[in-house]
Design brief:
Number of helices: 15
Low-confidence stretches: 1-17, 264-268
Shape: elongated
Mean pLDDT: 85
Number of strands: 9
Strand content: 5-15%
Radius of gyration: 20 Å
Order of helices and strands: HEEHHHEEHEHHEEHHHHEEHHHH
Strand order of the largest sheet: 1-2-7
Largest sheet: 3 strands, antiparallel
Length: about 270
């Protein structure tokens, strides 16, 4: 847990004071990875000027950026919707998505080989770099990884005085009636940036956080339909409303709590 805190507080990150929301520019992630990988200042200057030499150092630097920004995995490859967030397309360019996809289609399939992964990570990025648009300069939402989500869940359980044993003992019906569980779900939503009492569910962020492997259009359509159904009810307090909009409409929000239970109980 101490290591996780150090990771969250290290580097030039901007975090909302009320949440664990992480926002970073692409350039900040490049600088962070360059330091971690001991990239020389001259190479870094060349990279920041747009000179992308396809050597091993550059390839693995871009892979590091992809891992940090959650748009690259050595196991599942490129997550296009996340990488696209770092680019601003020309409003008059109606073919940027098609050009980018054609470029990606020409790349080889992913293999669990370190050198191959670095090469494929760079080539995937270049498809966006040359075809999708211009790199943005503003900070972009970075989805939390598994350990960060566990940290948020543990913190929210502490805040609302819910023990692991209590949480594991509750049936679905008991969770539906438990005010503390409702507030736990609301706390997770607020601290991860996917929910607020004023705006409800942030659909773009919740898809970025939990939508990997799902068609974005289907994910959002199904979510909107569920939210409309749940919003027709009267809940009486913010926690119960958050519970129904998040826990009842998003399987992966439920999985955060379930996975936390299983992983910790297995360790015990």
């Amino acid at each position: 847990m101490l290591l996780l805190v150090l990771l969250l507080t290290g580097g030039d990150l901007r975090c909302d004071a009320k949440s664990n929301l992480i926002l970073q520019t692409f350039d900040e992630m490049v600088l962070e990875c360059a330091e971690l990988m001991s990239i020389t200042p001259s190479k870094l200057t060349a990279l920041r000027s747009g000179l992308l030499v396809k050597d091993t150092e550059t390839k693995c630097l871009l892979r590091c950026v992809g891992v940090s920004g959650r748009f690259w995995s050595d196991y599942t490859g490129l997550r296009k919707d996340i990488l696209a967030r770092y680019f601003l397309a020309d409003a008059t360019d109606t073919q940027n998505v098609n050009r980018t996809q054609l470029c990606l289609n020409e790349l080889p399939t992913i293999q669990l080989d370190p050198e191959h992964c670095c090469n494929l990570a760079l080539e995937s990025f270049l498809c966006f770099y040359y075809n999708y648009g211009n790199l943005r300069q503003d900070r972009i939402f970075v989805p939390l990884d598994h350990l960060q989500q566990k940290h948020v869940t543990a913190r929210c359980m502490d805040v609302h005085q819910i023990t692991l044993e209590q949480l594991m003992s509750l049936s679905e019906e008991e969770m539906d009636a438990n005010d503390s569980v409702h507030c736990l779900v609301r706390c997770i939503g607020i601290k991860t940036g996917i929910y607020s009492d004023r705006d409800g569910v942030n659909m773009d962020l919740i898809y970025a956080q939990y939508g990997e492997g799902y068609c974005e259009a289907d994910f959002k359509t199904n979510a909107y339909e569920c939210i409309v159904r749940q919003s027709e009810q009267t809940y009486g307090n913010p926690c119960k409303r958050a519970y129904h909009l998040l826990y009842k409409c998003f399987e992966n929000v439920r999985n955060v709590i379930t996975d936390y239970e299983l992983k910790d109980s297995e360790e015990d």
